[in-house]
């Protein structure tokens, strides 16, 4: 058990200066909050937070059944929040509200809107928005989808009126308008409530009932945990370099302590430091960010162990390769930025290109991210994240074996 003496000695050297240790906890929390609020903060379901949809003003003068149903349809959107403006405003004032970001967009409904739909089956809208902003792009896509569905409903109603007129006929124009409105409303409602709804369920093997659902911190906290775990290797790897430069490592090798015990002692110290960081951040996320890591406690524990094992092996390799203490910062920061960027620590992989998504499979941070997000968003158990655990174990060996080979060669 002599390797434990080395582990305790390393941990003492790491934590005797409390400032870096505090940074390794404060920094990931700070960046977690920053990235989390960028992607919606506490907007996940189950809370009492305010509506965070994009505000959109809709201006119209004449209210008809078609206009009323179209507005009602838009109000069900998960992307935009409508604010009606029946009295209208000056066009320049409306453009100013969009430019000042008071509204993400302004929808202008003309007086002949309903008549054009009823007679021609065409939807014509004037929209003021900025297509160069993410909000503008999201609103444009939402409105275009709604317009396409509205046009389909109008064409369906027109076809029904034509068929009914040819086979049965109408006694007066009022019957035609009544039937048109009824079919139009039903067709538009069908888009809102499709008769067939694809249902995908995920059952946690841990028997949990509640997950973090769409909490934005389910993206940011695992990413920052992984990123700053790698950043924390700088101080730990410096200890190995300092031992080698001061001759302490050679003197230790001349004792009865085996080289493998030296290697394991240093690795275990790094693992303990990172694992403690993980545990503190997981508890912080569970208590303050409403992230239910404990929905699958065994999965959380095993994924944390394999994640910390990979990082500790990387740190061991860095400490053995670096010749100067200053080099440990470079050797740690380069993989930190590469693995974090490719692994989706800063931005959800779903928002990145297909090439980046494929390349992310070569980043261990990606496997940490997808594993923890599976636990937090779906309540995944050990079985569901088994591949993540296996891959991270592979990354552990990928870095530990070269570190051991180089270390033993230098000792001979």
Description:
With 412 residues, this protein is mainly alpha-helical. Helix content is 66%, strand content 5%. The protein has 16 helices and four strands. It has helices at residues 2-15, 18-38, 65-75, 91-99, 113-120, 134-167, 173-192, 217-231, 233-246, 248-253, 259-288, 297-321, 325-343, 354-359, 364-378, 386-411, and strands spanning 54-60, 80-85, 105-109, 126-129. A four-stranded mixed sheet has the order 2-1-3-4, with helices on both faces. It is elongated and about 110 Å long.
Q: Characterize the biggest β-sheet.
A: 4 strands, mixed
* First-residue to last-residue Cα separation: 23 Å
Low-confidence stretches: 43-49, 196-209
Structural class: mainly alpha
Strand order of the largest sheet: 2-1-3-4
Q: What order do the SSEs take from the amino end to the carboxyl end, as H and E?
A: HHEHEHEHEHHHHHHHHHHH
- The strand count comes to 4
Which term fits the overall shape?
elongated
Residue share in helix: 55-70%
State mean pLDDT (0 to 100 scale): 81
Count of helix runs? 16
Strand content: 5-15%
Radius of gyration, in angstroms, nearest whole number: 30 Å
Summary?
This protein is mainly alpha-helical and 412 residues long.
């Amino acid at each position: 058990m002599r390797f434990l003496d080395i582990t305790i000695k390393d941990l003492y050297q790491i934590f005797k200066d409390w400032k870096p240790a505090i940074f390794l906890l404060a920094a990931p929390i700070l960046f977690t909050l920053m990235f989390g609020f960028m992607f919606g903060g506490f907007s996940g379901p189950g809370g009492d937070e305010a509506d965070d949809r994009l505000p959109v003003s809709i201006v119209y003068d004449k209210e008809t059944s078609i206009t009323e149903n179209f507005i009602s349809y838009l109000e069900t959107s998960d992307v935009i929040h409508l604010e009606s403006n029946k009295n209208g405003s000056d066009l320049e004032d409306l453009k100013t509200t969009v430019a000042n970001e008071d509204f993400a967009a302004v929808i202008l409904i003309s007086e002949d809107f309903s008549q054009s739909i009823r007679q021609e089956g065409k939807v014509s809208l004037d929209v003021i928005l900025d297509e160069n902003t993410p909000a503008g792009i999201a609103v444009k896509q939402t409105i275009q989808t709604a317009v396409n569905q509205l046009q389909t409903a109008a064409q369906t109603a027109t076809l029904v009126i034509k068929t009914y007129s040819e086979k049965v006929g109408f006694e007066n124009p009022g019957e035609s308008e009544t039937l048109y409105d009824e079919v139009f409303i039903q067709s538009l409602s069908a888009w809102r409530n499709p008769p067939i709804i694809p249902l995908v369920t995920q059952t946690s093997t841990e028997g949990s009932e509640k997950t973090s659902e769409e909490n934005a911190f389910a993206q940011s906290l695992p990413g920052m945990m992984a990123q700053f775990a790698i950043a924390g290797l700088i101080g730990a790897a410096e200890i190995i370099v300092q031992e080698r430069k001061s001759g302490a490592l050679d003197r230790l090798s001349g004792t009865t302590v085996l080289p493998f015990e030296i290697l394991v002692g240093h690795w275990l110290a790094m693992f303990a430091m990172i694992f403690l960081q993980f545990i503190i951040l997981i508890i912080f996320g569970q208590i303050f960010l409403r992230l239910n890591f404990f929905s699958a406690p065994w999965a959380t524990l095993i994924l944390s162990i394999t994640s910390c094992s990979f990082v500790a092996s990387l740190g061991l390799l860095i400490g053995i390769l670096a010749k100067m203490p200053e080099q440990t910062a470079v050797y740690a920061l380069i993989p930190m930025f590469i693995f974090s960027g490719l692994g989706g620590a800063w931005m959800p992989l779903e928002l990145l290109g297909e090439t980046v998504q494929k390349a992310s499979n070569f980043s261990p941070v990606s496997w940490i991210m997808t594993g923890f997000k599976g636990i937090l968003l779906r309540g995944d158990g050990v079985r569901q994240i088994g591949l993540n655990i296996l891959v991270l174990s592979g990354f552990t060996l990928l870095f530990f074996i070269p570190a051991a080979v180089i270390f033993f060669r230098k000792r001979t």
